[in-house]
Structure formats: C-alpha cells, structure tokens
Known about the structure:
Helix content: 40-55%
Number of helices: 8
Order of helices and strands: HEEEEEHHEEEEHHHEHEEHE
Structural class: alpha+beta
Largest sheet: 4 strands, antiparallel
Amino acid sequence: xxxxxxxxxxxxxxxxxxxxxxxxxxxxxxxxxxxxxxxxxxxxxxxxxxxxxxxxxxxxxxxxxxxxxxxxxxxxxxxxxxxxxxxxxxxxxxxxxxxxxxxxxxxxxxxxxxxxxxxxxxxxxxxxxxxxxxxxxxxxxxxxxxxxxxxxxxxxxxxxxxxxxxxxxxxxxxxxxxxxxxxxxxxxxxxxxxxxxxxxxxxxxxxxxxxxxxxxxxxxxxxxxxxxxxxxxxxxxxxxxxxxxxxxxxxxxxxxxxxxxxxxxxxxxxxxxxxxxxxxxxxxxxxxxxxxxxxxxxxxxxxxxxxxxxxx
Length: 312
C-alpha cells in the first residue's frame, strides 16, 4: 500500500494527518514572500513538518483509506499498521524513506526521525495555478543619485554682470505672464460656450428619442404560447477539480473538452486569486465523489483533487 498517496490527499484539507504509531505530518499556511536578492515572488503555500511525538490514532487516515478502497475501518487500520512496521524496519537499517510530494524521512544520530520537506507540490488550494515570478530590480534610486552628481558638477548660476546686461529678460517674463492669463480667460469662456451647446444638443436628442419610443410602442394581440425547458442542475458540495485558469476562455475550452470525453464538466466559479476553476463533476455523496476521484486519477488526470465547498 502506497501510504504517502493517501497522506498527500488529506494534506490538501487538513492541517494534521496522523499515522498511528509512527508520527504526524503537519501543515501551516505561509503568506506570499519576496526574495530580496533575486527579486523572486513566491505565492502563498502550506509548509510541511513532521512530529514523531504525535502517534495517536484519530481515525482520519483509516477512514479515508476505507472510503477510497471500499474496505472496512478495521481492515484499513490493519493495513496501516503493517505498512508502519515495514517503514520502521527500513529506517532502522539506515535507509531514507522518500514520500512522493511530501518529503524524506531518516534517522539522525540520536535515533530520532528527521524530516526534509519536498517543495514540488503546493497543498494550499487557494493558490492553485500560481507560480513563481521574477521581477527586475527597480533602479530609480540610482537615477536620482546620477542627477544629484550632475548638479554638483554643472551648477546653474546667474552672475551680477549677466543680470546687468540682460534687462530684456524681465520684460519678457512680464509679457509671458500676461499672455498666459489672457489665454486662460479665453479658454475658460470657450469651454463654457461648448458646455452650453452640448447641453442643448443633449436635450434635443432626448426629446427625439422619447418620440421614437412612443411611435414604436405596440401590443401583440396573439402572443406565442410559452415554452417550458427542463434543465438538469448539478447539486452537491463535492467537486472533482480538473484545473484552474487565468483566462476564462481557456476554462471554457477545458469544459468542452471534458464534456466531449463524457464528463459532466462545468465551471465552479472563481477562487480568491481570480482563477476560473473547472470540475469534472459535482456530487452530493462524499463516498461517490471519492470513488469517482480515484477513477479519474487512474485513467485521466493524476493531479485531480477534491474540493469540498458549498457553491452559491
């Protein structure tokens, strides 16, 4: 039994997945971060950790395995215990346990289990479809320093001799101010005149529109009979997610593709990051949804996952 696959499924929805008599895998939400030296933007995610002290059986893992494999809770518990015994024997022999998309486990010098998390998969469903982004550094401070250096080398000054020989500059400044004020007055008058003309034209257009609407008003004396269409709407809170798309047109294409393959595909809304989510189908029964998810992963998409959410 590949125990890590079931643990990986549960980490999407739970913050603690305990393996009886072995330890617990813990997840914690981390906000988006920016690397100062590389200018890389990392989306929010769930960080993984392992606690060997938590070994109690809360029944979560056994119930999930029993639902997926359609076996009893007792049988699932026995399979977990058998797998744990095998894992411990490998650790004692000095081997490293590689749990796909979760991390590596091995014994340290003190005989404790050391865990190295994997970063290949983001278990935060809200960040589904988001990837790392690298932005070029902003260099406006460098430009500011260059300008300051130029001002120090080439200062702008006006000596007393230049002021005595260029009296016309004073009169030119006065003329410039006078022209600016007169232009402002003329422009203000012109704008007011245009606004008044626009208001009159708008009133005339509204009157003509009202007249046309009155002439076009009519009554159908013999209307067609009403038609009743029966539409089947998918209901339920269990959705098998096929993917999430930044462009809505791509999500529409995905829906049509899945419908052509025989799925009852549909769009299930936009998540908090603006991605359009597409589902293979929606189910009211949790056991039926888990069985369908297992079938989709085996035949179509190994990355499909189950979203438990009540849609509006």
